[in-house]
Amino acid sequence: MRRARFLKVVLTATTGVMMFSASAISAPLQHGAGVAAAAPAVTEKVWCRYGNCDGGAAVGGLVGGLIGGVIAAGAANAAAQQEAAAAQQHAASCAQRYRSYDPASNTFQAKDGRRYPCQ
């Protein structure tokens, strides 16, 4: 229950970010001299106390990877639950049709004595 709530919060936040970034993605691109004029002529390298402060990209990649992993794990879990439910429904249907149904082998025994797979 707690995991499902966390997944819901993550998906809601991801959807919100995607909705607000759509306008920036669809904005027209600037061509020619406008881009060159907008860029600063000189860039300044900022140093932290213990070295270069380029950890922002690493943190962003880590957070993005974690969110992607949570989404993928949730999708895999949902698919596994659906597959298990389908298998259980199949076994119940076969057991209802054939009295000799064996769920371990997914077979039933016909009148001729041979076992056949339940379809």
TrEMBL record:
Principal cellular location given in the protein's record: membrane
Record's bilayer topology term: Single-pass membrane protein
InterPro entries, per the entry: BA14K
Transmembrane parts of this sequence: none
Cellular component annotations (GO), alphabetically ordered: membrane
Classification via Pfam families: BA14K (PF07886)
GO MF term set: carbohydrate binding
Record's signal peptide: 1-26
Record key words, sorted: Cell membrane, Lectin, Membrane, Signal
Keyword Cell membrane in record: yes
Subcellular location: Membrane
Function of the protein: Has immunoglobulin-binding and hemagglutination properties, and can bind to mannose. Essential for virulence. May be involved in LPS biosynthesis or polysaccharide transport.
Entry's family note: Belongs to the BA14k family.
Protein name: Lectin-like protein BA14k
Taxonomic source organism: Bradyrhizobium macuxiense
